[in-house]
Specification:
The complex is a heterodimer of chains A (534) and B (271).
Chain A: H1 2-36, E1 40-45, E2 72-74, E3 80-82, E4 85-90, E5 96-101, H2 115-127, E6 137-144, E7 147-152, H3 159-164, E8 188-194, E9 198-203, E10 216-221, H4 224-232, E11 238-241, E12 253-258, E13 263-267, H5 292-301, H6 304-311, E14 316-318, H7 339-348, E15 361-362, E16 365-366, E17 368-374, H8 378-394, E18 397-403, H9 405-411, E19 416-419, H10 427-433, H11 451-462, H12 466-477, E20 492-498, E21 500-505, E22 508-509, E23 532-533
Parallel strand pairs in A: 1-10, 1-11, 17-18, 17-19
Antiparallel strand pairs in A: 2-3, 4-5, 5-7, 6-7, 8-9, 9-10, 11-21, 12-21, 13-19, 13-20, 14-20, 15-16, 22-23
Chain B: H1 3-27, H2 30-33, H3 59-94, H4 97-112, H5 115-125, H6 129-138, H7 143-157, H8 160-167, H9 172-208, H10 220-231, H11 237-264
Helix pairs in contact in B: 1-3, 1-11, 3-4, 3-6, 3-7, 3-9, 3-11, 4-7, 5-6, 6-9, 7-9, 9-10, 9-11, 10-11
The chains are: A alpha+beta (534), B mainly alpha (271).
């Protein structure tokens, strides 16, 4: 009996040692393979799409849906190019849009992509009540197997960008759980989603376009500091980071800085405080920011280059509109930093520091207001602080206050907020400045409205000609006499566009990136299908 | 100089240190706390012993201000807590049995819920900020002291001189005021001082988790949670010095508490 006991102990020990060795060998091999392999990739991205991978509820808006394909897409210069569609036509009145789709596209379950699926996708998205805004789309019908027709309520040229951002889902395989295990006709297939941790995807070998060269891609969801540590340990190939880490070097990786229109600016309540409240009882208006001299003086008197250098360590560029550098953005909106001009604007308007406390006043009102920002965002905190320091020199006192978005959404109609936007779609100009959107969501909390601006926006959206619409979008900013930019009504004081920073392994080619939209994470994978290892 | 006097000196010295920190923080010029992007991310040096952060704020100034905020919050919260404890403990000890059962049940209830969870709930419910944290800490820290006071009161109540006093026709209020409360004083003081480190640590914890003070206030919890984001970028000094200072303050209070205990405890007093 005793002998048996000892033998079994030894067997167990031997097993343990063997297993231990085997494991080490395996991990060694695994690591070696990962760094050498030309068809796998591991990357770290900060934010997981909470709603899953369902384009009908917003997946793929910023960047690309990856698992689904879109009718059309934008190239790196923001021109419209065909994807699933072979061509499209717009009727003379701008209300009927007809798309013809290709006949060689298949979903990953083998079914053909048809006009039915397209109609189903847009119909479902319209009813989803999500961030996908299709209120202007009256109906969508499949005319025949490969032709689909959209009918709009009113003409809208920017609808083309909405189409370009909406991935097509299969009608036969769509259900409430679709977002968890999407089936689509895109360049990639989702293999596995460990919520809160990672997704694993592989190339779709039946993709109608060029099949991606990198066959297996793992995207880990982690914060910048965790991603930085993992990148340093050589565990990942692409890591999202921010300007606070940018002075750190990682061996074998380059810091890639991608231009963006991920902007930050101040919303300044446009109306006077006359005791008005909205339907929920939130105060509307502010007696300081409603004065145009204050807004304009801030726009001229804040040195945006210093903000870029101080707050984001030079990884960004000054912002003057919500769409700097886009085809619909206007150079007329750019103003030079001019402290003297800013001061004289204030003095001419009657803002003078009479009691010598460093803060100007006019008719008994002190030039001071609160600036709210989301307290979870260190960059916004630094930006708000830097702005208030610069405003002090102008004699305007800005008190910064970090808080949560639910507090901001109640106080933003009467106080300044540090907000950020930036879309690859001119519809954003409509959302931020058209009187339709006064007090709606976060779009126009300033309660700005101008008949002239509304008219330009309406015309930009209703013309049939994309080039012509661009001219109208530019006139929204500045038409020679008025507009929303600094020289005009100066509704926002835009501050900076924040570059998107990533550590990328030296021998990985991530192609040519478009100007990134708001949301630092997913835009980088918009062209994932073109990525290759050198 | 005997041990007792030495102890008293040591207590006074510690209290002085804490008072100085609190006063420096309270009287500090706001300008010292201001951001200055020209001097951001400086490692500890002679001019900035604790370094500066990513907005160029002097971490020494922030730490001192943070500690003084903690001390003030701790002081208010622990006084309120200790007073609550004495009142509830005395009530439980002197009132009829059913009051005792109800209060005993209340103590068990508050003690049964994890401190931090209750604290977060309460400070969230009464509207965050300094007020929220103070109320939160005040109403969660009285339980163990209350229990102690209760048993003390029960013990005193059965002493002969109390019974004698009663027989002599003294009223309950008189007995409470002249015979019971003076006996509770040492418990009260020690309890108060020992509540301090708890209160400060909980204030820092709640603020660290983002349920306490707004990010403009340089509280230690805020400083620590902000510095977490920069740790892997190599900014070790942002967390280390404020963290050590917090520990030091807590240890100082602990020191006062245990020394007072020794001074007031007749068995140890002469050693």
């Amino acid at each position: 009996m005793k002998k048996f006991f000892w033998i079994s102990i030894m067997v167990i020990l031997a097993n343990l040692i063997l297993v231990g060795c085997a494991e080490t060998v395996l991990t060694d091999e695994g690591q070696a393979e990962r760094t050498q392999s030309k068809d796998t990739l591991v990357m770290a991205i900060g934010s997981e799409p909470e709603g899953g991978f369902d384009p009908c509820t917003g997946w793929g808006r910023y960047g690309s849906p990856l698992f689904q394909s879109t009718l059309i897409e934008t190239d790196k210069n923001m021109n419209i190019v065909y994807d699933l569609a072979k061509n499209y036509e717009i009727s003379d009145d701008g209300l009927t849009w007809t798309f013809t789709i290709r006949d060689d596209a298949y979903f990953t379950d083998g079914e053909k992509v048809t006009a039915e699926d397209v109609a189903f996708t847009f119909g479902t998205a319209k009813l989803s009540g999500s961030i996908v805004d299709l209120t202007n789309m009256k109906e969508v019908t499949a005319v025949n197997e490969f032709t689909v027709e959209f009918i709009l309520e009113k003409p809208d040229t920017s609808f083309v960008y909405t189409v370009a951002a909406t991935g097509i889902v299969p009608k036969h395989a769509y259900g409430p759980d679709y977002g968890d295990s999407p089936i689509g006709s895109g360049p990639f297939k989702l293999l596995q989603w460990d919520k809160g941790q990672q997704i694993i995807m592989e190339a779709n070998e039946n993709y109608y376009g060029k099949v991606p060269e990198i066959k297996k891609i793992t995207i880990l969801f982690m914060d910048e500091d965790a991603a930085f540590a993992a990148a340093k340990a050589g565990e990942i190939d692409v890591a999202m980071t921010n300007s606070n880490f940018a002075d750190q070097e990682i061996k074998g990786m380059n810091l890639v800085s991608i231009k963006s229109i991920d902007n930050r600016g101040l919303t300044l309540p446009y109306l006077k405080d006359e005791g008005r409240t909205d339907a929920e009882g939130n105060k509307i208006g502010n007696n300081v920011t409603s004065n145009i001299a204050i807004r304009r003086a801030l726009s001229y008197g804040i040195n945006r280059d210093i903000l870029v250098n101080d707050v984001i360590n030079g990884y960004g560029r000054p912002a003057f509109t919500e769409c700097d550098g886009m085809p619909w953005g206007s150079d007329e909106a750019i103003v030079e930093y001019d402290l003297d001009k800013a001061k004289s604007i204030l003095e001419e308007a009657g803002w003078i520091d009479i009691d010598n406390d460093g803060i100007r006043e006019k008719e008994g009102i002190k030039a001071e207001f609160n600036l709210l920002y989301s307290s979870s965002d260190a960059t916004r905190q630094a930006l708000a602080t830097a702005v208030s320091l610069q405003a002090e020199e102008l004699g305007i006192k800005i008190t910064t206050e970090g808080t949560s978005w639910d507090v901001i959404s109640k106080r933003m109609f009467s106080e300044a907020v540090l907000m950020g936007w930036g879309a690859q779609n001119p519809i954003e100009t409509y959302l931020l400045y058209h009187s339709d959107n006064m007090g709606k969501d976060y779009y126009n909390p300033e309660y700005f409205s101008s008949e002239r601006v509304d008219e330009y926006i309406d015309r930009a959206m209703s013309t049939n000609n994309l080039d012509e619409s661009m001219e109208y979008w530019k006139k929204v900013q500045w038409d020679g006499t008025t507009g929303i930019s600094t020289k005009g009504e100066c509704v926002w004081v835009w501050l900076v566009n924040v570059d998107h920073l990533y550590y990328v392994r030296e021998d990985l080619n991530i192609g040519e990136q478009k100007i990134h939209p708001h949301g630092h994470a997913w835009p980088i994978v918009a062209n994932l299908k073109e990525w290759v290892w050198n | 100089m005997n041990g007792r006097i030495k102890l008293i000196f040591s207590i006074i010295a510690t209290i002085t240190i804490i008072l100085i920190i609190a006063l420096v923080g309270i009287l500090m010029d706001e300008d010292v706390l201001k951001a200055d992007f020209k001097i951001k991310n400086i490692e500890p040096c002679l001019e900035y012993p604790f370094g500066t952060d990513w907005m160029g704020r002097d971490m020494l100034a922030r730490t001192v201000k943070g500690l003084s905020i903690s001390i003030v919050i701790g002081l208010v919260a622990s006084i309120v807590s200790a007073v609550m404890a004495v009142i509830i403990g005395t009530l439980a000890g002197t009132m009829p049995k059913w009051v005792d059962s109800i209060l005993g049940w209340l103590i068990d209830l508050v003690m049964g819920i994890p401190h931090l969870v209750l604290l977060i709930l309460i400070s969230f419910a009464v509207g965050r900020g300094i007020k929220g944290v103070m109320i939160g800490i005040a109403v969660t820290h009285w339980t163990s002291l209350a229990r102690l006071v209760r048993s003390e009161v029960l013990q005193i109540r059965n002493e002969f001189y109390i019974k004698l006093s009663k027989k002599l026709g003294k009223s309950n209020i008189y007995i409470l005021k002249n015979h019971i409360l003076p006996h509770l004083l040492p418990q009260f003081i020690i309890g108060l001082v020992l509540l301090f480190p708890h209160a400060i640590l909980h204030e820092a914890a709640v603020t660290f988790l983002g349920f306490g003070l707004p990010p403009e206030v340089p509280a230690i919890g805020i400083i620590l949670s902000e510095s977490m984001k920069y740790l892997s970028a190599g900014k070790w000094h942002l967390a280390l010095f404020p963290g050590l200072s917090l520990v030091a303050i807590v240890l100082l209070f602990e020191h006062i508490g245990s020394n007072i205990k020794k001074v007031l405890d007749p068995y140890n007093a002469q050693n």
